[in-house]
Design a protein that fits this description.
It comes from Hyphopichia burtonii NRRL Y-1933. Keywords: Membrane, Transmembrane, Transmembrane helix. Pfam families: Pho86 (PF11124). This is Inorganic phosphate transporter PHO86. The protein is α+β, with helices and mostly antiparallel strands. It has one domain. The chain is built from eleven helices and nine strands. Strand 4, helix 8 and strand 5 form a beta-alpha-beta unit. Helix 8 packs across helix 11. It is elongated.
Length: 343
Amino acid sequence: MVKQKKVDLNEPIDEKAKPTLSKSELKPELSEAALTLHGDYYRQLQSKCNRYIFWHTRSIGLMMVILVCYLSYLMYDYVIISDSIREFTKLVLNNKFDFINIFPCLILTFSCIGTAGYFISDEFRGISDDLLKPNYIEEIFGFDLKKYSKLTNAKTPKETKFKLTNSKNSQLIIYRDSPIAVVTLKPLIENSTESNFFIKITGLNVRKVFQKVDFDTLLIETAILRSRELFQEYVDGKKIKDVDGCKINILIDAYSFDTDLIKTLTKNSFGLIKKDYNLNFFQANNDDKLLKLVSYKSVHQFFEISKNTYGLTLLAKNEDQDLILKTSKNYLNNDDQSTKKRR
């Protein structure tokens, strides 16, 4: 295996390294880094999901209802024996220790919501841990990443073709010689026709400490440019000469609580296509139940947690007229050049 460039998400970027910012296609030595960044995306989702559930309006509403009901139960006797609000207030103040039981009630309510959040968000931890599985790698990259990572400089023609076919479908941003962001695309050839080409962004992630920078938009733009190139490769393989008016459909999944990604997609003209309450798209729908009491789908619906598919449709023009294709050739083919500061 080629020596891999390590990415430790628990350690800060090396400040001694030169402050260079560049982009790179997926090289064999960057295979592990790309997979690590994709796994980090689901770890980040786990944290976001927990916060979303705890502060969800239905969680807050549930806690308030329980609190009001329990307080009403505790105060009922005082209301019955009181002849005025003043007397009621005096009784409550003189017997305030009777209401100390409200705290165990609140703790129990918080625990129930926290437990539900843990079991729901743990789905994303499981995805992150399972990314090394062949079917997960295939779903993201569309090829055998382990085999790709073993390619050396002494390539056979077959290895060269394998690398050229897959290397540009993942693009990484590298800062101070450390990969900090990645986007990966996968052509959906089985769903495509001569007039409708489908491609999916199967992974997009920026390290948490760099998320305030506009790297996510840059990755989306990179994916759009690469999509136009992939469409051209598709029509060349099909020997289609006139592509004017053909549609390039770019798809991406975003979870309902991932508001930052949804905002980025909306800003880049992506529109919602469908919702799915099965959060793990690597596996088929299942009928598992939370604590063997209620189906996960019902819990997802209650908290409005869904995997939403967004889409962007581009209208292609013939090669000599398509500005997107010309831009992609200038941008994607200039590998390892410093990325300009975005304004």
